[in-house]
Backbone:
């Protein structure tokens, strides 16, 4: 009896071994469906990589273009700064040139008036010549924006007038400029020099 059981057990073990071997061989054999799926997936992966490379190349080109634009813009800005700096320097150095040029004819006429008074010995002629130069100078200054500050008969204004004396006056109200001691001037809306005045008490 024991011998029969042993033989049966041996046969079952052999059958189990054969079954496992067949399964292993089946697993090792290629699966046609898996092979087909892999074959289909492979071109897709290739297309995806190629598309990705194209995208990378496109953005690389855009990056290079933007960098070149940045370099050009920076160079333009630096050139503009240099030009602006030079213009400011020229303005500071030569800004008074137009006024100086406009004063040259005044200087010429003053020299002529002095020569005329010296040669003729006529004081009246000298006075008239100097007065003419004075009027011409006032016109040149007015064209440049420099104008006299009116004072006599005006209420005293500390922004425009510099009171150095006070006096009694029957003609003017208290706090009124009665005499101009030194004329003041404006440059456009800015006071260059206040007028030195005498004010009524």
Residues:
């Amino acid at each position: 009896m024991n011998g029969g059981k042993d033989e049966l057990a041996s046969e079952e073990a052999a059958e189990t071994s054969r079954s496992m071997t067949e399964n292993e061989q089946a697993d090792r054999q290629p699966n046609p469906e898996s092979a087909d799926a892999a074959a289909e997936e492979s071109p897709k992966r290739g297309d995806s990589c190629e598309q990705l490379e194209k995208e990378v190349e496109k953005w690389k080109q855009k990056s290079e273009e933007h960098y070149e634009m940045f370099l050009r813009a920076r160079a333009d800005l630096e050139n503009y700064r240099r030009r602006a700096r030079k213009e400011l320097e020229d303005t500071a150095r030569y800004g008074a040139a137009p006024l100086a040029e406009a004063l040259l004819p005044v200087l010429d006429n003053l020299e002529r008036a002095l020569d005329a008074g010296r040669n003729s010995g006529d004081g009246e002629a000298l006075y008239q010549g100097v007065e003419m130069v004075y009027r011409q100078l006032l016109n040149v200054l007015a064209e440049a924006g420099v104008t006299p500050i009116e004072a006599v008969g005006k209420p005293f204004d500390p922004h425009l007038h510099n009171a150095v004396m006070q006096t009694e006056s029957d003609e003017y109200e208290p706090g009124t400029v009665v005499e101009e001691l030194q004329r003041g001037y404006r440059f456009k809306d800015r006071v260059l020099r206040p007028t030195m005045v005498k004010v009524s008490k």
